[in-house]
Write a structure and sequence with these properties.
The protein has a two-stranded antiparallel sheet. A two-stranded antiparallel sheet has the order 3-4. The protein has eight helices and four strands. Strand 1 (about 55-60) and strand 2 form a beta hairpin. The radius of gyration is 21 Å and the shape is elongated. It has helices at about 5-25, 30-35, 40-55, 80-85, 100-105, 110-115, 125-145, 145-165; strands spanning about 55-60, 65-70, 105-110, 125. By secondary structure, it is mainly α. The chain starts with a helix and ends with a helix.
Length: about 160
């Protein structure tokens, strides 16, 4: 599993906006942002447009306009950003449901789940169960890390390095 470069640029752009949020005027122009990240303005504009549509950043119109965080950096999780850029689809789906091996590895759904229309008549694949557990752990880890938590860590490192000298 690999995230796209768009996710990489989105996260770095948000970190840059988060830095700007505390140091200077709240918005950063696309030219400055693209120069900092080393990516074309048109490519970055498409990424920022997705983030804007999902309410993560806000576009500031005018000559001195640009982008700013639409909500506090502590409320923007890595998971939010990844799902906006990559999409919200499941990472794994069992596609081997008709094989004999699948039947051996499948658990019969409990009576309670059978009453649930979503699971009615299905058996649960043990491989899928493991993969869903891994996905849940990944999502929780990414939910626990925000743009602000990363900025805080970077700030600690800078202070630590400054104190060493």
């Amino acid at each position: 599993m690999q995230f796209s470069k768009s996710t990489d640029y989105a996260l770095h752009a948000l970190i840059h906006l988060g830095l700007g949020h505390s140091e200077r005027s709240n918005n950063v122009g696309i030219k400055e942002l693209s120069g900092t990240l080393g990516v074309s303005e048109s490519y970055l504009s498409k990424i920022m447009s997705k983030l804007r549509q999902d309410g993560i950043v806000r576009a500031v119109p005018g000559v001195n306009g640009g982008y700013e965080l639409a909500k506090p950096a502590e409320q923007i999780t890595f998971l939010d950003v990844i799902q906006v850029i990559e999409g919200r689809q499941k990472l794994f789906e069992c596609s081997n449901t008709k094989s004999q091996q699948h039947r051996l590895l499948a658990e019969e759904v409990t009576a309670q789940k059978e009453r649930d229309q979503e699971h009615s008549g299905k058996s649960e694949c043990l491989v899928e169960k493991v993969m869903e557990g891994a996905e849940q752990h990944l999502h929780q880890y990414l939910r626990d890390h925000t743009i602000q938590s990363l900025l805080d860590e970077a700030f600690k490192r800078c202070n630590h390095e400054a104190n060493k000298k």
